[in-house]
């Protein structure tokens, strides 16, 4: 039985990885968390676009998957054009189910297979720019830009959280109105202080 190690965190952010089956989401995650890559990895069951019926049946799972997420890596495979063409559908899915302020980075994975490229890097860059997303090409196999992708998204999330915390502090400070504290009347002298100074007899 594996024991779970409890850690103390200053912040704990939920980041979801979405995209078509076989684009490398699991390997991106294992490369980032354990610095491992599995060549024989099988496609995992995730939030997939299959049929309308399947999508409706798993809508509750889909909503649960996105719930609480503050960041998303939207992954496509640079060697499979269809995975890039489906990015817009994934973006709609994400925007329908996730928080409206979620930070999204689009990632073209498998850049180590440049000789099999079906999606130009500029196409990815253009779509990301059009949608207001960050963009990087990655290779889970070569560990290229994996750390950078997560660091970029986490830094952006941290800045947003920090701004919200600062705004909340400023709002709380603004609600304290001068004059609503305790009033101290300085004209009331204590009863035993009738005389004054060193010369009183």
UniProtKB/TrEMBL annotation:
It is found in: Cell membrane. GO terms for molecular function: GTP binding; GTPase activity. It is a lipid-anchor. GO terms for cellular component: plasma membrane. Keywords: GTP-binding, Lipoprotein, Membrane, Nucleotide-binding, Prenylation. The keyword Nucleotide-binding applies. Gene3D superfamilies: P-loop containing nucleotide triphosphate hydrolases. Its main location: membrane. It comes from the Eukaryota. InterPro entries: P-loop_NTPase, Rab_GTPases_membrane_traffic, Small_GTP-bd, Small_GTPase. Belongs to the small GTPase superfamily. Rab family. This is RAS-related protein rab11c. It comes from Phtheirospermum japonicum.
């Amino acid at each position: 039985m594996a024991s779970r190690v409890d850690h103390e965190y200053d912040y704990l952010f939920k980041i979801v990885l979405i995209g078509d089956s076989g684009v490398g989401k699991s390997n991106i995650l294992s490369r980032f968390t354990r610095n491992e890559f599995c060549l024989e990895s099988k496609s995992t069951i995730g939030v997939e676009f299959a049929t309308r019926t399947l999508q409706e049946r798993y809508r509750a799972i889909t909503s649960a998957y996105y719930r609480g997420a503050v960041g998303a890596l939207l992954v496509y495979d640079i060697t499979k054009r269809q995975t890039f063409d489906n990015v817009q559908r994934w973006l709609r899915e994400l925007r329908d189910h996730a928080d409206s302020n979620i930070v999204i980075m689009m990632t073209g994975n498998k850049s180590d297979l440049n000789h099999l490229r079906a999606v130009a890097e500029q196409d990815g860059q253009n779509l990301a720019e059009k949608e207001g997303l960050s963009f990087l090409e990655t290779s889970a196999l070569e560990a290229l830009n994996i750390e950078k992708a997560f660091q970029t998204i986490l830094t952006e999330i941290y800045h947003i959280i920090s701004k919200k915390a600062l705004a909340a502090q400023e709002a709380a400070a603004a609600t304290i109105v001068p004059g609503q504290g305790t009033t101290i009347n300085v004209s009331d002298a204590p009863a035993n202080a009738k005389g004054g100074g060193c010369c009183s007899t």
